[in-house]
Amino acid sequence: DIANKIASKAGKKLKINDVDFDSLVTELKTNKCGFVAAGMSITDDKKKNVDFSIPYFDAAQSIIVRKGSPIKSRKDLNGKKVGVQQGTTGDIYCTNQDGKNDLHVNTVRLNKGADAITDLINGKLDAVVIDDFPAQKFVSKNSDKIVKLPEALTVEHYAIAVKKGNAELLNTINGVLKDMKSSGELDKIVNKYKSSLENQ
User: Fold this and answer.
1) Which tens digits make up the pLDDT trace of 147-196?
2) By the 8 A CB rule, do 67 and 143 touch?
3) Which among 92, 166, 185 has a CA at the least distance from the CA of 131?
4) How many domains does the structure of the chain reveal?
5) Which range marks the domain in which residue 172 is found?
6) In this structure, what CATH number is given to the domain that contains residue 37?
7) What are the C-alpha distances in Å from 193 to residues 2, 83, 138, 177?
């Protein structure tokens, strides 16, 4: 939906290229695509190769603990048994796959977030790290047993990427995003996306 608006504003016809996530930056550099709108988070590493729009979505990795837990903040996770869903940002962070983790936790990797929550409730885990949206759902369904900490483990800002130096397209994209934010259309799209995740 966002990509369609951008293409329309730029006076172009939208053509969607489905490529591996790892190849997205190369696609931009070699002019195989005009912009990337595929849940790409802003990082210093990526900024070396692409220019980013203003963020259109913030995704937090939330920390869930049992009620009455001594864990009150992210630093309290050090040395604790933490459940994550395999392949998620929480998994990458807790298992320190990118070498940027400032915490040292005993990570338990599970196939489903719901399994991690069950293990937490049953006392097999000290905490669970999971995307904020499912975290809210799990906590609301088990509010007598678990709580979400106010402090997130990490927060990622998602934005649209363009080839480095393509200021004209970047300005167009930022204009579209600002219009969609002020009209409330962007929130509707994000909520539609969240609902589709919920129904998976």
Assistant:
1) 999 999 988 888 999 999 999 999 999 999 999 999 999 988 877 776 66
2) no
3) 92
4) 2
5) 2-57+156-198
6) 3.40.190.10
7) 12, 25, 18, 16
Query: Are 65 and 147 within 8 A, CB to CB?
Result: yes
The 10s digit of each residue's pLDDT in 67-103 is 999 999 999 999 999 999 987 778 888 988 777 778 8
193: its two tokens: 């996306």
Residues 145, 82, single domain; the answer is yes
